[in-house]
């Protein structure tokens, strides 16, 4: 970090300013602990005071250690007054805009960085192949410190992947596949270890279900995840209810995080209230722990300096903003993140798909007939009221759910562009676009079902057994 008080602080976001103040405070403490010369300490303190003043000028808030700017983290309300059309937190996604959440505004609110053409091109150079269509189409649109991960990769330094799933139902829907399909691609092109957390403890705490049912859902969801094609020699899937009690490293990291996050902070970040059970209040530390390699000594040989990259939907970012704040204070590297957009409900992009509403989702257990019926009956259309109007004015791909789904699952860029042009011009009707989606989704889901049938309980046990993976550390 530059120490010059003349550096341009006006261009920094509130969260970037917060991180600068935090880093400078750590530097001051280190200088004092190391009994550095007085003039060096004084200069560092002046810089700290200057940063705190800039922070207060920008945010209207006094800097408080461990508590990022309120407008970025009060996600129980999810928005500032100026942005009250979007609600985004780990449990809810809602917007009044038929196009869906305004992700450019969300980047500003959360203080992350946009995945731009330069970063995509750098990824392409690093891996020597065309980037995944999720990157090319902006489905993964935001990041934190992906440049650092690429620096490490280019310098032959290891990193690992971490993603997860909250098992709230026995059957997953196609939206749940997005982070796993992308994570599988990342694992293959970078050849790195992967850990997948099943937060069955979270679902027991938040949902009206027994602990046995939560664990059962975790194992059933593991079968769907394995069916995506992960390599058992490079992937460790774990249930919190199973793994927490067997790994001292995992629990040690949980306790370290818990010590450095106050009740006021988790209330501010997650919107917890005094009536929430203490399990909810302590859970964020459990989701944070897999970000640190020492939580998996069997994989990383006890090493604590291996950076983690987390592909996830952006509604999970609050957990990892907290984690990134805590990491330097417990001697761990900050995890990097890649954020995806939300997979919309069939009824429209105002909400994400729900496992509790069978008509909002295409489930991985749906038959070909069910898929056809759901798309024809429930998929929100961007078409006109009459064929004549549609031919004259064309359809709106920005709000049409069938087209949105095709951006996720139709890999052919040229074909997707042809459909967009034909629908926008009015040449292609809504029913015809839905037919293309049906013909795309039916074989995709059927192929997944066939792979899942091959996943036995023994295979699940192999993936979920703590063990050394096919990497040397």
UniProtKB/TrEMBL annotation:
A molecular function (GO) held by this record is:
tryptophan-tRNA ligase activity
What EC number is given for this enzyme? 6.1.1.2
Gene Ontology annotations of biological process type: tryptophanyl-tRNA aminoacylation
Q: Which UniProt keywords apply?
A: Aminoacyl-tRNA synthetase, ATP-binding, Ligase, Nucleotide-binding, Phosphoprotein, Protein biosynthesis
Q: Domain (WHEP-TRS): give its ranges.
A: 13-69
User: Organism's domain of life?
Assistant: Eukaryota
Annotated family: Belongs to the class-I aminoacyl-tRNA synthetase family.
Q: What NCBIfam families has UniProt attached to this entry?
A: trpS
- What protein name does the entry list? Tryptophan--tRNA ligase, cytoplasmic
Q: Which organism is it from?
A: Chloropsis hardwickii
